[in-house]
Fold this sequence. Notes:
The chain is α+β, with helices and mostly antiparallel strands. The chain has helices spanning 62-67, 76-82, 89-92, 96-110, 121-127, 152-162, 241-244, 260-266, 316-321, 335-339, 359-367, 395-398; strands at 40-44, 49-55, 58-61, 128-130, 135-136, 145-148, 178-180, 186-188, 193-194, 197-203, 209-215, 219-220, 223-229, 248-255, 258-259, 280-282, 287-288, 296-297, 323-324, 327-333, 345-351, 378-380, 406-407, 413-414, 422-429, 437-447. It starts with 39 loop residues before the first strand and ends with a strand.
Amino acid sequence: MTTTQPSALPAIDATHDQALTSWVISANGHAQFPIQNLPLGVFDAGDGARIGVAIGNEVLDLTSALDCGLLPTLDNDTEAALHGSSTLNAWMALTAQQRGLLRAALSDLLQKNTESGKLASAMRKQLLRPQDACRMLLPAEVGDYSDFYAGIHHATNAGKFFRPDNPLLPNYKHVPIAYHGRSSSIRPSGTVVKRPSGQIRRDAPDGSPVPVHAPSERLDYELELAIWIGAGNELGTTIPVNEASAHIAGFGLFNDWSARDLQAWEYQPLGPYTGKNFLSSVSPWVITQEALAPFRGPVMQRAANDPLPLPYLFDADDQQNGGLNIQLEVLLSTARMREEGLAPHRLSMGDSRYLWWTPAQMLAQQTVGGCNARPGDMFGSGTISTPSPDGYGALLEITEGGKKPVQLANGESRTFLLDGDEIVLRGWCEREGYARIGLGECRGRVQD
């Protein structure tokens, strides 16, 4: 079952050196965007959508950097993917080698002790925009979106509500499960969450179901990772698991908002529909595969009696290094809390190591039947929960389906989300010997 193929995962290199500093002063020691991160996104500072790189509290305008001749080592295809582009799709279509060379060029440009570190203040002003003066847009045009179910603790907890004696169905540990979601309603962090309406079950006096049309009363969030697909494959071909990581451009935070009451009535027998398609929120910065190289590790540990993946889903390198070590936090701020000047309430503190399937396995499964993946396609990882309640990834789990309200410091309580509630997802990576890097935030506020 082993493979002799070289690793599709990027290696740790000079761009990850903890000692690197930048001439962008705010980047040095920055908890999210030091020079060791260099995520890409799409911003508008008043002159249209452009591709930028987060560096400290600033955004580096890549079109301006190219116009100034500051990235001379890039090939023509890479320059064309970046210059004047309003989405990251063309960048995502580049090869893993081209993306790695871009990262190296950006690291060289932004390092303090280089020729670029001596840039005149006028040129620095031309290159940089304050992040708080930029409107962040959707990173890519999302052609297709699949939402996986790889968080095994969430799958178990959610399954208990429907099948108390058998929460995990027999196929769960054998095949990455997903549904095809609605890409048209994926929006960037900060987009208002309009409470959806739909059919909700009510019970007649005799206990029989009687649906009514009403606004959702059980609006929930889901803590997930966004997985951005890079270079794809032709229809009728597959992406082998040992090559799949090279086809993944990067990662972000993802909130798959869920109307649990709509979902409960409609999901059988075909799965999620209007309970999921009203909005999904994604963080604006794409954290590259290359940036995450120091924060990879083994897959989630299996029990001795757990099945091995079938050969098309098994790669020794992916098993050893395909896991992600990302800390994940969920915060809740109510309208009253903000009026009272109170800090947000932490709902959970999670960890992406509790994903049963790796991103490479997800992509291998997506294409196993010949489905074509395209640059800018997106996967949701599925809700990520830890084994303990302080790391649950949705209110459905935290409140045990609404039976145990969350008690807030100001006396309020929540079973599900009310109008005015804001959910903030945060993520970051830490490892001794390496600079901490962040995934930024994914925010959404509910309104009627």
